[in-house]
Specification:
It contains eight helices and 20 strands. Strand 14 and strand 15 (262-263) form a beta hairpin. It is globular. The chain has 418 residues and is an alpha/beta fold. It has helices at residues 14-25, 95-108, 200-209, 280-283, 323-338, 347-362, 367-385, 392-407; strands spanning 6-10, 29-33, 115-116, 120-127, 135-141, 147-148, 150-153, 160-161, 175-178, 192-196, 215-219, 241-244, 247-251, 254-257, 262-263, 268-271, 275-276, 291-292, 297-298, 312-314. The structure holds flavin-adenine dinucleotide (FAD). Flavin-adenine dinucleotide (FAD) binds at residues 10-16, 33-36, 41-43, 62, 64, 71-73, 78, 120-121, 154-156, 158, 201, 281, 316, 323-324.
């Protein structure tokens, strides 16, 4: 019988795959529980026969991917260390290319056989252990009742829509959708569509539906990264997109904006207002309570470890940053912690530090400060993981990509970098 520690990884998206590879490479055994029939997480399509109204709930929708989705980060920061994208992959790969890449990576790293597809993780139970080392039972549907020495939750921060608080939204007589369920532009043929939110999803969706829709109003939600109304011509010439202020109220099929403007006869409102972290699976961690406070899971030591039971961790909860890179640094630290190669501070100190992160995250912090915190956190993870911190070249690439996107908002994925 094997005496290797066995770790449960929840989710076979990029985070789960990268964590699992690191665990296996370090002689820890792994079972990956994935609720869907495929790997790839947010990048794996889930086709929908009908687009639901978000007001009816979207609990059965697991992926925000749409067929034409492409990365908005360059591939250099979406790469698994030591596993490059195939030759000829464009700088901003398509959803399909990313999915194929993740599948190749999973095969190459012998992860496929570790994935229990169609297994929904529903909770965790602490098991009394006479041997002195704590064990946990991962509760899944269907249930295997297996015991684990540690659990890594890689179930993502991109599945529960964050809905804005707009007066009269529940009585709006048009349809209300969320970007989570956006799939193809043909669904908006001859429709007057309002898109709320100007983050990457709002920008991609409004441009894609423009040739099909009668009219596209993009309303700059205050929660979006760029909520200011841009100059004339931002969306290029010869299209039907116009940019407007935030939506203050819905009346019938009319949207009343913050500046008093009225958008009339709106058939569909697509909320591109992002995602939130809610309790769901997290509250079912019996004996190890954590909660979803919209922005993150809390409290988490280093935004990663359960402060009391550090053999439980939650990945990807940094609010800013480059997800693929973050997962790999987190993987290094999780493995070293599970193998006892690093000593974390005592429980009380971890609890205190975790509360501080929680307070800081929920407070009002500028984007620049958040970015600085994210960079400092990567460096700290690198130190603890005993790996090189991200190079200056990587930060420069991320910065160049952001400048490039602002300079060529309509075509940045296909225009070569200056
Ligand atoms: C529209 C959009 C565009 C994006 N563009 C980029 C980009 O260009 N570059 C970039 O780096 N990032 C981008 N992101 C962020 C992207 O989500 C991350 O790149 C990455 O997919 C996050 O990986 P993850 O494994 O944490 O989560 P996911 O990819 O969401 O995977 C989570 C997995 O966990 C599974 N799961 C969830 N709950 C359970 C459960 N209870 N039991 C079992 N399994 C469960 C899910 O089915 C899923 O397979 C984008 C996100 C969105 C929404």
């Amino acid at each position: 019988m094997s005496h290797r520690k066995k770790i449960a990884v929840i989710g076979a998206g990029p985070a789960g795959l990268m964590i699992a590879r690191e665990l296996l490479a370090n002689d820890l055994d792994v079972a990956i529980f994935e609720r869907r029939e495929c790997l790839g997480g947010s990048w794996a399509l889930q086709s929908l026969t009908e687009i639901p109204d978000v007001r009816q709930g979207l609990s059965h929708i697991y992926s925000p991917a749409f067929p034409s989705l492409r990365a908005n980060f360059p591939k250099q920061v979406m790469e698994v260390w030591g596993f490059p994208y195939p030759k000829g992959t464009p700088t901003y790969p398509s959803r399909e290319q990313i999915c194929n890449y993740l599948e190749d990576f999973a095969r190459h790293s012998s992860l496929i056989e570790k994935i229990r597809f169609n297994h929904q993780f529903v909770g965790l139970e602490q098991i009394d252990s006479s041997s002195g080392s704590r064990k946990w039972r991962a509760l899944t549907e269907p249930d295997n009742g297996e015991e684990f020495s540690g659990v890594v939750l890689c179930n993502s921060r991109y599945s529960t829509p964050s809905l804005p608080d707009i007066k009269g939204l529940s009585d709006f007589t048009g349809k209300v959708e969320h970007s989570l369920t956006y799939r193809v532009p043909e669904n908006y043929r001859n429709q007057r569509v309002a898109v709320m939110g100007t983050g990457p999803s709002g920008e991609d969706i409004s441009r894609e539906i423009s040739p099909q829709a009668t009219k596209v109003y993009v309303c700059a939600h205050k929660g979006s990264r760029e909520h200011l109304v841009p100059e004339e011509g931002y969306y290029g010439e010869g299209n039907n997109i116009t940019r407007h202020k935030d939506i203050a109220e819905c009346r019938g099929k009319t949207l009343i904006l913050e500046d008093g403007e009225k958008l009339e006869d709106v058939d569909v409102l697509i909320l591109c207002t992002g995602y939130q972290v809610e309790d769901s699976v997290i509250t079912s961690l019996k004996g190890a309570f954590l909660s979803g406070n919209k922005l993150s899971v809390a409290p988490l030591y280093m935004n990663l470890f359960h402060p009391e039971f550090p053999e439980l961790s939650v990945t990807g909860m940094e609010i800013l940053g480059v997800p693929f890179m973050l997962f790999q640094y987190q993987a290094k630290v999780i493995v070293r912690q599970l193998k006892g190669e690093i000593t974390l501070p005592p429980t009380k100190q971890r609890q205190y530090a975790a509360r501080r992160i929680e307070l800081m995250q929920t407070g009002k912090i500028s984007l620049e400060t958040r970015r600085d915190i994210a960079i400092a956190q990567l460096r700290r993870l690198a130190r603890l993981g005993d790996v090189k911190p991200p190079s200056a070249e990587i930060f420069l690439t991320a910065q160049k990509s952001s400048i490039h996107r602002k300079k060529y908002p309509n075509t940045y994925r296909d225009v070569p970098w200056d």
